Amino acid sequence: METSFPRLLAHHAGTRPGEAAMREKEYGIWQTLTWADMAEMVMHVACGLHQAGLKSGEHMVVVGANRPRLYATMLAAQSLGAIPVPLYQDAAAAECVFPINNAEVRFVFAEDQEQVDKMLEIREQCPGIVAIFYDEPRGLRKYKEPGLSALDALIEAGRSFALAHSDFFRTEIEKARPDDVAAMFFTSGTTGNPKGVVHTHRTLLDRAKAGADFDKLTSREEVLAYLPPAWIGQNIFSYAQWLACGYVVNCPESASTVVIDLKEIGPTYYFAPPRVFEGLLTTVMIRMEDAGWTKRRMFQAFMDVAKRVGPALMDRRPVGALDRLTYALGNLFVYGPLRNNLGFSRVRVAYTAGEAIGPDLFTFYRSIGINLKQLYGSTETAVFVCLQPDDQARADTVGVPISGVEIKVAENGEILVRSAGLLKEYYKNPAATAEVLTADGWYHTSDAGFVDAQGHLKIIDRVKDVGRIRGGTNDGAMFAPKYVENKLKFFPYIKEAVAYGDGREQVCVMINIDIDAVGNWAERRNLPYAGYTDLAQKPDVYQLIKECVEKVNADLACDERLAGSQVSRFLVLHKELDADDGELTRTNKVRRGFIAEKYQLLVDALYGGKTEQFIETQVKFEDGRTGSVSATLRIDDARIFPPVKAAA
C-alpha cells in the first residue's frame, strides 16, 4: 500500500473533516473528535515533539489505555519519522526496562500517574529517558521531576510553533515512504528477553486493507477499542484498519465500564480473545440459572432450536419452513434481546483469535445470529494470515489464506507463511531474525498444523510443544499440551489449565477454576467457602472438575492421533495463575516451562502417585506488596477411555 499512517489521516481530514473519527467517554458522556480535530491535535503534538527534540528514526514509548491522545501521539511520532513503541499498561515497572533500553528511548508518553510512577521508578536503570509527557494530570500536580511535563503544555508549544511554521507539518508528512519503519511491538518474552518486532507502514497497512477487503469493511463501521494498544491485534483493529477504512473508534471510560459501553455503542465490527466471549457467556448462564422457572424453560427450549437451526442459517444452508418460523419466534423473544444485552445487536463481523475457542462456545454465538469467526496470525505477520468466510466458519479451523498470503507445511508439521505483512526484522537481533525468516521470504510460525481438504488451516499446537508419551500402554503416542488445555478451558468452570506429559508415561494437569462460575455454582448448592483457595479444594468442586476432565478424555478417545493424550491425574491449584507472578504472559498465555519449575513439587506429586501435597507460594499483590498462599492440595485420578476406532 503506497501510503503512510499520517498521510491517511491527512486524507480523511481533507475529504471528510466534519465526520466522526474517534469517541471517548468521560464522566459518563461520549465526546466526539472529528477527523479535522484529530489532524489538528496530531499536528500540534508533532510540532511540540519536534521542538522537544524528537528525531526521525528515534523510538518513542507510549503506555496507557486506548485514548484519542495516545493514538494522536503515535501519529505525531510517525509524522516526524519517529517510531512509536506501545508497551502494556499493566506491565510491572521492571518489565519496561529492557524494551526502553533496547530501543534507546528518550521520549515517553505516559497516560496517568500510575504510568508516570513506573517510568520514574526505573529512570535510574533507563538513563536515556529525557522527557515524560503525561495526559491525565490527576495526582501529578506536586511532581517536580526533571523532564516531566503535561501533554497539554506540549500541545500549546506545538500550536505556537505551527502558527509560525505553517508548512512544517505537511512537509514532514510528505517525507514518509511506505517502507519506512512505522512501529515496533515487543513480544511477550516467554523464553527470555522480549523481541522488538519491526513493522513498516507497508506491512501493517497491507494487512489492514487485506482484512478490510475480505469482510467488506467500510467507513460506516463502529469499533470499541478496549484491549491493550500494545497488543498488535488491538493496534490493527483500532489503528491500522481505522486509518485504512476511516471508520469510528470508540474508547471506553475504563476497564470496569467496557460492558456498559459496549451496549451503548453497539459496534458493527468486534474483536475479542476467547476468554472475553467465555466471560460474557458465563455471565449470561449465571443470570439464567438465577432466573425464574418460566424464563429458564423458554430460554432452554429456544436455545435448543438455535443450536439446531442457527448455524445452518448463518452458513446459508437450506432450513425447513417450520424451523425458520420457530427460529424467528426465538429471535423475537430470546436471541434478539440476548444480543442486545450483550451489546452485539449491530455486530456484522466478530472475530476471535489468540487461543482456540471451544466448539460449544463458538456454536452458541453463531446460533443466536452473531457472525463470530476465527482468524489466524501473529505479531510477526501483522495479524491477518487466515480468515473465515461468513458461510464457512468452523470451530476446529482458523480459516483460509487471504489475499497476498501463501502457506506451506514443512516436513515436521510446522506452518510456514509468506506475505506482504511479514516483519522487517527483530530489532538488534539478526540471529533471531535469521531463525524465523528464510532467504526466499518464508516465515517460520512455530505452529504445527495442516491444511484440510476444504483449504482451511487447522492448528494443533506449538511445534516445540508437540511431544510423545514414553512408556506404558500409550508409548509413542502424540502429546499436544495446548490442544488438551484448550479442550479443558472450553468448560466455563475451568479458567486455565497446564498439561504435562512429554517424555512421561501419562498426562497430568494443573487447573485453575473460574471463581465466578464455580462460586455461583457453589452458592446455588449452599456450599459455603471463604475465598478462592478454600473453594478450589472443596470435594464437590473436585468432583465437578473431574467430570469436565473425563468428558475431555472421552472426546480425545475419539481422535486416533491424540487418544494417548488423555488426562490420568489432575489437581486444582490453590491460587490463580497471574502475569504479575510470572506464570502468564501479558497476553494471558500460559508459561508452561516457568510453571513447571515453580511448581516442581506439585509436578513430582502428580507423577509420584501422591493423593495430596502441601505447598506454599509467594504472590505479588496489585499494590506491589508480596505475601504467601499455602494449602494442602488434593490430587485425583481421572477415568481413561479406550480409543474409539473410526468406522471403515
Characterise the protein shown here:
By secondary structure, the chain is α/β, with parallel strands linked by helices. Among the domains are: 5-271, Rossmann fold (3-Layer(aba) Sandwich), CATH 3.40.50; 466-637, GMP Synthetase, Chain A, domain 3 (2-Layer Sandwich), CATH 3.30.300.30. Strand 3, helix 3 and strand 4 (83-87) form a beta-alpha-beta unit. The longest helix is centred in the middle third of the chain and has 22 residues, at 293-314. 48% of the residues are buried. The model has no long low-confidence stretch (mean pLDDT 93).
CATH topology of the domain at 5-271: Rossmann fold
**What value does the average pLDDT take?**
93
Q: Would you identify the CATH architecture of the domain at 5-271?
A: 3-Layer(aba) Sandwich
3D shape: globular
Tally of contiguous helical segments: 21
Q: What radius of gyration results from the CA coordinates? A: 26 Å
According to DSSP, the number of beta strands is: 28
Strand arrangement within the widest β-sheet reads 4-3-5-6-7
CATH-level-4 superfamily name of the domain at 5-271: ANL, N-terminal domain
Low-confidence stretches: none
Structural class: alpha/beta
Biggest pleated sheet? 5 strands, parallel
For the terminal residues, how far apart are their CA atoms?
Answer: 51 Å
Approximately how much beta-strand content do the residues carry?
A: 15-25%
Percent range of helical residues: 25-40%
Q: What's the CATH C level of the domain at 5-271? A: Alpha Beta
